[in-house]
Amino acid sequence: MNSEKQADIPEKNDSTDTKDTSDSVNEVDDTMQNLGEALASYWSNFFNGKIGKLKEENQKFLLNLSIERDKTKRLENKISSERKYDGVKLAREILGSYDNLLRAIEAGKQNSSSDNIAAWVEGIEAVYREFQETLKRNHIQEINPKTGDLFDHNLHEALYYAPVPGFSDGQITEVRQTGFIFHTRLLRPAKVGVAECIPSEEPEPSPDAEPEQDSPGVGESDTPQSD
Hints:
Elements: H1 2-8, H2 14-84, H3 88-93, H4 95-110, H5 115-137, E1 140-143, E2 156-162, E3 172-177, E4 179-182, E5 185-188, E6 190-195
Parallel strand pairs: 2-6
Antiparallel strand pairs: 1-4, 3-6, 4-5
């Protein structure tokens, strides 16, 4: 009876088991390869997207940085300009004293017959020279054109235009008041007179002048014809 039971048990097939194992291994390899490719594609897309966003943000950062630098530069220029020209009001106010000092010197020169007056003029001139140095130290330059110089509308103010013998058109004939420049800014122009040449008109014929006689035409006789 034991022999019959043993006959019912099928014998194992080694070749079939080997084939099944090989198929399973291949299937696992394919699955792992597909999974690796999927992961590689996922992370590649992920990092490419991140890199693109980083590049975009970097461009925005550089643009904002350039804008802020321009703002800072404009602000620095504005502050520098305000510091440079913050004394304009004071500079204009002292110009009246400058003019009065010049008038006092001229008046003293006209009445400098005595030694006392001459000494006074000398002292006033010393103050004037010191005042000029003060202006220069504060970047105030004098505009003092000479007669014969050409008129410059950027630096001079014409009080009148008139023909003056010995002067060409546009030449300065008189300086009434000196001008001043603070750094590169005009405080006041020099007030001058300017020569103006009036075009000469053709002289009118004198009423006593004899009229010109017409020359005889071609074919006409100089002797009168008799009737």
